[in-house]
What we know:
By secondary structure, the chain is α/β, with parallel strands linked by helices. Helix content is 30%, strand content 17%.
Amino acid sequence: MTIVRYAAAIVVLFFARNASSAGDVQRGAKVFQACAACHSLEPGRHLTGPSLAGLWGRKAGTEPAFHRYSDALERSGIVWGEATLDKWLANPEATVPGNLMLFQGMREVQPRADLVAFLRAVSEGKGPAAPKAPAIPDLKTAPLDFIVATIRRCGDTYFVTNGSKKTLPFWEFNLRFKTDSGPSGPATGRPVLVGQGMQGDRAQIVFSNPGEISGFIKEGC
């Protein structure tokens, strides 16, 4: 009788452990909120990382419109599924040495299983409402105060004149030049001033393409 009870206890423990590590889609949706800053679930919408729409069963490093994969990931031969995603999420660097994902990994088994279950459900069109990726402002509709009309450089200072003819001086180290060729990027010839952080002394100017940058900057004191 003791042996029977012992065996039964082992069976119960086995199923309890498996039940606890089985992924829960609803919990996984909450775990994914931490991923949404870098990954969207919308097809073709890539952020810092690639869209995870249709991830299940896809070969790693093969999303056609995403060009920021590491060579290591592209050569890995990994096909995303339950086992490969679990291993990757536990420790990306150990799974694919030299990859470019700035993520240390999830050591906790249960949240990892929940996230994997959620990603599978989303890929199969069965998932709950997914967290939305951060909204990207449409720079084509920026008001005149943020449209850049001219940029003049004198010594270590950039003088930026906006569409309302107001000129702001920036120390050259505090002004960044960026490009956004996507659908929400600025119109050609109408760069936009964004992100005046700190005390208003730091900003970024976003152009539609790299070729515009040098042509916009004029030297003169």
